[in-house]
Structures are given as C-alpha cells and as structure tokens.
Amino acid sequence: MTERLDRARILAGQHGIDALLVTPGADLRYLTGYAAKPLERLTCLVVTQLGCHLVVPALERAAAEASGVEVPIVTFGETDDPYAVVADLVGRADVVAVDDQMWASRVFALQEAFPETGFVLGGQLVSDLRTVKEDSEVEALREAGAAIDRVHARMGEWLRPGRTEREVGADIAAAILAEGHEQVDFVIVGSGPNGASPHHEVSDRVINAGEPVVVDIGGTTAKGYCSDSTRNYVVGGEPDPGYLAMLTVLQQAQQAQREHARPGVTAESVDAVGRRIIADAGYGELFIHRTGHGIGQETHEEPYIVEGNTLELEPGMAFSIEPGIYVEGQWGARIEDIVVCTEDGIEVLNNQPRDLVRL
Ligand code: ZN
Ligand code: ZN
Ligand code: ZN
Q1: pTM, rounded to two decimals
Q2: Helices (H) and strands (E) in the chain, counts
C-alpha cells in the first residue's frame, strides 16, 4: 500500500498538486486498504509532498488500525474542527486536489479552511494508478471471474419457463454469494422484450418457453474485486430465427474485439472493430452503448472502451468487452467478458460458452 501512496505522491508532484485529499470510497481503499464507511464524521487521507496522514475521528482509530493501514493516523475529538486538523497537516498550499466523490459539504468546508487555495479534482490522478493492475489485483479479478462463471454454469437450476425474473434473480443472487463473492452488486434477468433494456434488472414478468433471456450478473469478492459477465439463454424451446441471426453477428463482433485487443491499440479501436461488424450486418443503430468499462475495486472505472478514448491499452489494464444489440419490444442480447491486457494480447477471465445456452 505504501508503494501506491508513493506513486500517488510523485504523480501529484508532477501535476503541481500540493495536497491530495481522499475521503472514504474506492480511491481511499485502493491507496490505504481502509474500506472506511462514509459517515458524517470526517475521515480523510492527506497526501502531501512531505508525507501521508490519515485523519480519523478518535472513536474510529481502532477500526482504522484494524484495517492494517500503514499511514500515520491523526485523530480529532468530538468537538474539534476536523478541517482545521487537515489544514494543519497540509500547511501552505496553492493547489489542493480532492477525490471525485467527496461530499459537497466537505468540499465547501475545505474551501473555507483553505481560503487562498485553488481546488481541483484528483480522481484522474488516482484513476491513472488504478487503471494498471498489479499482479495481485489481476489474480483477484481472475478469482472473481471464475466465481461468476460458476454462477452462470448453474443457470439451469433456476431459469425455467413459468418462473418470474424476480424469482430467478433471487436464486442467482444467493448463488453469487455461495460461489465466492461477499456482496451481490447487480442481477439482470431480461426476458423477451425486457432484454432490450441494457440496464433492466428484474421484474415480475413470467419467463416463457422459447424466449431469449439476457443474464448479466456481478458481485464483489472478499478481496474487494468485482466480477461482471453476461450470457444469453433460452428455456424450454427455440427462439425466433431473427434473434438467432442477430446473436450470430453479436458473437462475431465480440470475438473480433477479443482478437483485436492487445497492448498498443487504442480503447476506441476495440469498440470500432465490433461496431463495424454489427453495423455491416444492419444492426448498427441497435448497439446503443459503448463496448466496455474498466473494472477493479469498482464495477465501472477507467478505461472506458468507447469512441473518442484514444488511450492505448497497456499490460495490466482490465476491462469488459460487452457489445449488445437491442430490438425494442422484442428482445436483446449482450455477450460480456472481463479481460486483462497482457504483454502480447489479452487474458479472458470469463470462459462460459458465448453461444446461446439452451436450458
Ligand atoms: Zn452497465
Ligand atoms: Zn459490464
Ligand atoms: Zn455486465
């Protein structure tokens, strides 16, 4: 962890940032290992060129210590002004960076505590660190990928005609925990026309025989890393030939994207390779979202695999490849794998069949 803090400090210095202030959230957890709860009393990591401190309420010192943080802890009492404590640690500063998700009430309080100082967002700085995963993080993502694959492999236990999406979703959620996650992040069971809404979750709709079902699921493991994988199912019958033709195109696009992704190619080119195949087949207007998102301690983080992102992939970057085609009122399909950029290509962390799974 101290190594990550050192890198953050160096990066801050290069950007002319005198102090980086990080309140509870994924950035704090990444930098210190402390998964602090975002409560009303201030917890704030203070990174300056002189060193790092973690400001915590006195009554939370034990919790912070128990998390194993290697940063000196500075506490404040119930009636002290925590912002004055932060200001003391920072000293004179021209530019202070705050984490992107800091509460507005805290930003305003800090601005009052530093009346002469310019404030900037520090999220990009931490994101630049988080985007390239260390080996231990890749291993944690690999475990998360295997865990969600085991849930997909068991889909036949729950997905049956006559059951509602909500009933199936509840069983899936239990299995997400049983197969090695500590938390269920989302369960999407989109049957028939509901599959056409990419962020549909579950509903009381009864799943009918022969209807395509999009299942997109993810959770967070005890190590704090996320899984996210989508597969397409049909139960108790054959779907419409029009759907099957569409799914074939989607499979070709997703495969082409996996074959294209490697160090040195841009994030947007991964999107373009699949989008072209889908457009050439006449479904271009129906691929209504970007190809993917980075993943790590959060399900959605950088790098985003989207037109306009000219970032070149580097070994250690982890992201989803998840093209989808959505026909309103009828059905939808999405194929999603998490992949990690390696020295000469990618490692695919989700390996359940990408073909239509017939149950
Ligand atoms: Zn999404
Ligand atoms: Zn995703
Ligand atoms: Zn997903």
Answers
A1: 0.93
A2: 10, 17
